[in-house]
Design goal:
Elements: H1 6-35, H2 37-48, H3 50-81, E1 84-85, H4 89-98, H5 104-115, H6 120-129, H7 142-166, H8 171-178, H9 183-211, H10 215-221, H11 229-238, H12 243-264, E2 281-282, H13 286-314, H14 324-331, H15 340-372, H16 376-381, H17 389-404, H18 408-437, H19 440-448, H20 453-482, H21 485-490, H22 498-507, H23 511-534
Parallel strand pairs: 1-2
């Protein structure tokens, strides 16, 4: 139901909505303008080229398969974690939540170091089997892409489905058992229909993430046959120097993702948590053994690639302890390391400015959406998700040509604006549940006492929204900190960030230097994750 005071909150949200729409339309305008150069020949060529549809087929294939496997693996694990309580259960769920803040470039680096032909896993297997050649060949293949996507997104599905399952009261299942229904029939006829919205929500989220995947495809695929829209747009801009073709392909990709966003958005309604949550059973005996086994499997899948980055930062390939990479960072030696300190500062400052703006603007948008009970405002704020970060980078880079291609100040400004455009939709979606959870009666009581709407917002509603804003800041900061797609397309060497430096070091096979910077990036991700977790206990349930 729409609130009587919704007009006040809509007015406060207007600056954020306008900024979001403008930041979305500017790169789209310049992309369209380049796509229609020469009477739109590039656009006609893209829409009629069989290669475009091969790109579409592969992008859909890898996205669907990655999302299906992630959800399929998560469901049985979520079934156990949503039914039983045992030591370290919360720690494992917290670790799964950490995946939201792990930059994709760290997944790429961790996979190269852990799963590579000369990586830690193959070295372990070679010692066990006595072979002098690689036992597993994973990298630079389609299976590497799928495995990396599952690694990155399975924890997301696991966490979302477990939380959704835990919030479902088990009364209907108990009633079904009483009437003589078996476990399988009860699951498919009673539990699954109620859990399906959560499963579909997780699937759609992962599908969209994989559809716009860039660095995993570019590095771990290692083959033009595994190109997606994002990687092909990047190649056309930076290798083929074909901006018109890249712009035309961006329009095609935007059309496809826009259609998917329209199809999926109406079904993604926020479900209020039930007051009567499922009562967890204490695991004992075989169930406790099963819990230990499942936790070990999850940890053995998630931890090794990240731990291998930290290890490689301090040890050579031969296993000798060294601080050379760290000394290069501190001294600013020649080569790629000379820009390490600059990259660290750039990453932090850009992420700080962009995330602060995202939370400030996103709070107003989220409150307006909640007060008006609007589906359109969240949909409008999600539009940048339909463009892809590489496409946004392309649009801003075309704008940079007009504003002054060689201006460092303009490069920094455009990179920050690109980051803001990417992270603002996620900030809005993170804050909206908190805004909807604020009881209407609090504001009504405040108005009855003669307190103004502005003061009610500041003194009554804002403190209740603070935990969600803190979480949104941590999420937005982590996304900006690890952003590589748009920055790589847009910066043109003027702006170096930690993810860009790590990507370049991976490309030049400087794995120890990449691991040292990756350790710093991982440490920052852990810190911002801890900040986001700090307010969860006070969050409204």
């Amino acid at each position: 139901m729409r609130r009587k005071d919704s007009g006040y909150y809509t007015l406060r949200a207007l600056p954020g909505i306008l900024i979001l729409v403008i930041l979305f339309l500017i790169p789209l305008f310049f992309t369209f303008s380049y796509a229609f150069h020469d009477n739109g020949k590039a656009l006609v060529a893209v829409f009629s080229d069989k290669y475009t549809y091969r790109l579409l087929a592969f992008t859909l294939k890898e996205s669907l398969l990655s999302a299906l496997i992630s959800v399929a693996v998560a469901i049985p694990l979520s079934s156990f974690f949503s039914k039983y309580t045992f030591p370290f259960r919360r720690a494992v769920l917290t670790l799964a939540g950490l995946s939201f803040t792990i930059p994709t470039i760290l997944v790429v680096l961790g996979f190269v170091i852990w799963y590579g032909n000369n990586g830690f896993l193959n070295n372990i297997l070679m010692r066990i089997t006595g072979r002098d050649y690689s036992v597993l060949s994973i990298l630079y293949s389609f299976k590497a892409i799928i495995l990396a996507h599952v690694y990155l997104n399975f924890p997301i599905a696991f966490l979302l489905i477990t939380n959704g399952w835990t919030e479902l009261p088990d009364t209907p299942e108990k009633a079904a058992y009483t009437l003589g229904a078996g476990r399988a029939r009860t699951f498919f006829s009673v539990t699954l229909p109620r859990l399906l919205p959560t499963i579909l929500s997780a699937f759609i989220l992962i599908f969209l993430f994989c559809f716009s995947s860039f660095s995993i495809i570019l590095v771990l695929g290692g083959n033009p046959a595994f190109s997606t829209f994002e990687t092909e747009i990047y190649r056309r801009v930076n290798i083929n120097v074909d901006r018109e073709g890249a712009a035309a392909l961006s329009i095609f990709a935007f059309f496809v993702t826009g259609v998917m966003l329209i199809i999926t958005s109406p079904g993604r309604r926020e479900r209020k948590a039930s007051r009567k949550r499922r009562v967890l059973i204490k695991a004992t005996g075989r169930k406790l053994f099963a819990a230990v086994l499942l936790m070990l499997l999850i940890l053995l899948f998630i931890l090794p690639p990240m731990l291998s980055i930290i290890y490689r930062a301090f040890y050579t390939k031969a296993g000798a302890f060294t601080l050379r990479a760290w000394e290069d960072i501190a001294k600013g030696s020649t080569g790629l390391m000379s820009t390490a300190l600059n990259g660290i500062i750039n990453s932090f400052m850009i992420a700080l400015v962009a995330s602060c703006l995202a939370v400030f603007l996103g709070s107003g948008i989220a409150m307006a959406a909640a007060k008006r009970n609007s589906w359109f405002i969240p949909f409008l704020s999600s539009l940048p998700m339909a463009t892809g970060s590489v496409t946004l980078g392309l649009g801003f880079s075309l704008l940079a040509v007009v504003l002054g291609h060689d201006s460092i100040l303009i490069s920094y400004l455009l990179v920050t604006l690109a980051h803001l455009t990417i992270i603002l939709p996620f900030a809005v979606r993170t804050i909206i549940p908190g805004a909807k959870a604020i009881p209407d009666s609090l504001a009504a009581a405040s108005y009855t006492l003669g307190i103004s709407k502005g003061r009610t917002l500041r003194k009554v509603e804002a403190p209740l929204l603070a935990p969600y804003k803190r979480k949104a800041f941590a999420f937005a900061f982590a996304l900006s900190l690890g952003e590589v797609n748009a920055t790589l397309t847009l910066s043109d060497g003027h702006v170096s960030t930690l993810p860009i430096l790590i990507y370049r070091m991976i490309s030049s096979y400087n794995y120890q230097g990449a691991a040292a910077l990756g350790t710093l990036l991982l440490a920052e991700a852990l810190i911002v994750f801890a900040i986001g977790q700090g307010g969860r206990k006070n969050a409204i349930s």
